[in-house]
User: Which sequence fits this backbone?
């Protein structure tokens, strides 16, 4: 059957942690060397599996933060209070340890470097992770597709990828706007959530070429996606990824 | 053999959950795009057979059908499970009562363009519903309201939100997530998450 022929089976593979970078007080980037990595598209995720000495296992999904350049794959994990897997990845895992992963997964929340239309990226908190992979892939491919990132954070110290973002923002192809929801750094007067006015001022206007990617906690994604649709964006051109699991009010 | 993570103890739920799942009390949301807001008066549901015969209900007609209270565990591929969730809806046995078909496969279509594929036999015999209430309240838009498919024995992406129709077919085609690398059937007890599992 032709259909099953293209559906490659995903198997677990072991990687070695080669580097760990602390991004904020609660988030770190884990650099993995995965000798069998088949490659990925920016925006895809993988599953991480932890096995306790008695055989108990737990798995969670994590977006890939890096562009595909070879056997190195970067993840960025935000510690969730009392989180079963994130607490281990942020608090215990060390350089030289092995980690089992399976992926890449996901064929919708992806950006392909051959696409030329503008891309609007809107991230909240750790929702910036797959968006960063897109920006890195964009830079790696020397794409000239216009790209903008709106990045909602509590305060300046919550910014993940601060240095990389600064470098990217210095290029002409990427436009970066921080939105501070709790406390703004000196010289940034605005404190508050993303709203219609901010989108009108900072995000690309609706168009037939534009693709918008929104990622973050569920309530953030719900709010932003609704604002985009209300502003005239075609819902089919707005792609979302919800990191859940905390749902909004029913 | 897997790799053991020294220092990882984990949190065991004690409940009888499908492999790799954990318990949540929230009701998380998984969707690929913005939430479609469909007013009940604009809602329509149809079943289209492989010969092109269409059976249609509007909201009024749909609410006249006998409904059932349904209490089931649900399992999302993103690994949360929710026990004993309570729904109200119309059984697909009721909706299929006058439908003549020899087809084996169904594609569920949703407002907003979402699709998911299922074998017809998984939708009949008290296994599936079109649900419009969740825990005593009208189903909210972010959870698929005004009405969603409910097929609790499969991973929850099969329970298409904002459902607007079922199309019967002799060919087994792939839906939205199934084309994006997820399993074509999605049995949580066999942990059929991704293609080939
Ligand atoms: C496709 C996908 C991609 C993801 N990518 C990333 C990523 O790149 N980086 C990342 O850090 N996480 C990502 N996540 C979230 C990740 O999979 C886990 O859900 C998260 O790490 C928490 O797992 P845990 O075992 O630590 O917490 P759990 O033990 O599962 O949960 C502990 C408590 O925290 C709450 N909680 C769990 N997750 C969150 C959350 N995200 N926000 C707020 N509260 C929460 C739970 O409701 C629970 O009460 C992604 C999720 C999905 C579905």
Assistant:
């Amino acid at each position: 059957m032709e259909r099953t022929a293209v559906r490659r089976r995903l198997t677990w593979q072991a990687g070695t942690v080669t580097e760990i970078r602390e991004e904020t007080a609660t988030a770190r980037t884990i650099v993995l060397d995965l000798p069998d990595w088949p490659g990925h598209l920016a925006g895809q995720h993988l599953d991480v599996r932890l096995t306790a000495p008695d055989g108990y296992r737990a798995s969670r999904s994590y977006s890939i933060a890096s562009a595909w350049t070879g056997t190195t794959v970067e993840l960025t994990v935000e510690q969730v209070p009392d989180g079963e897997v994130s607490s281990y990845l942020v608090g215990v895992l060390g350089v030289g340890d092995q980690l089992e992963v399976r992926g890449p997964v996901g064929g919708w929340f992806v950006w392909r470097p051959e696409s030329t239309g503008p891309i609007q990226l809107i991230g909240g908190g750790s929702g910036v992770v797959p968006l960063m992979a897109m920006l890195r892939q964009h830079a790696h491919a020397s794409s000239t597709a216009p790209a903008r990132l709106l990045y909602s954070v509590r305060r300046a110290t919550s910014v993940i990828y601060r240095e990389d973002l600064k470098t990217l923002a210095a290029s002409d192809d990427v436009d970066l706007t921080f939105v501070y929801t709790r406390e703004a750094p000196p010289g940034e007067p605005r404190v508050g959530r993303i709203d219609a006015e901010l989108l009108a001022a900072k995000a690309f206007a609706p168009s037939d070429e534009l693709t918008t990617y929104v990622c973050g906690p569920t309530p953030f994604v719900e709010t932003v996606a609704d604002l985009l649709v209300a502003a005239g964006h075609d819902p089919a051109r707005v792609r979302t990824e919800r990191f859940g699991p905390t749902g909004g009010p029913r | 053999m897997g790799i053991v993570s020294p220092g990882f103890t984990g949190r065991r739920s004690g409940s009888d959950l499908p492999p790799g799942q954990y318990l949540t009390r929230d009701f998380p949301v998984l969707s690929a795009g913005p939430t479609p807001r469909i007013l009940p008066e604009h809602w329509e549901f149809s079943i289209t057979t492989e010969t092109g015969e269409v059976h249609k209900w509007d909201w009024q007609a749909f609410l006249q059908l006998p409904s059932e209270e349904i209490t089931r565990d649900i399992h999302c591929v993103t690994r949360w499970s929710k026990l004993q969730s309570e729904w109200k809806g119309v059984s697909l046995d009721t909706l299929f009562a006058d439908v003549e078909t020899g087809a084996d496969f169904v594609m569920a279509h949703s407002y907003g363009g979402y699709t998911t594929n299922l074998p017809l036999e998984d939708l009949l015999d008290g296994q599936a519903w079109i649900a419009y209430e969740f825990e005593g309240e009208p189903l909210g838009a972010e959870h698929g309201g005004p009405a969603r498919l409910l097929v609790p024995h499969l991973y929850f992406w099969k329970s298409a939100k904002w459902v607007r129709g079922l199309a019967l077919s002799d060919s087994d085609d792939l839906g939205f997530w199934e084309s994006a690398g997820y399993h074509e059937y999605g049995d949580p007890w066999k942990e059929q998450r991704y293609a080939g599992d």
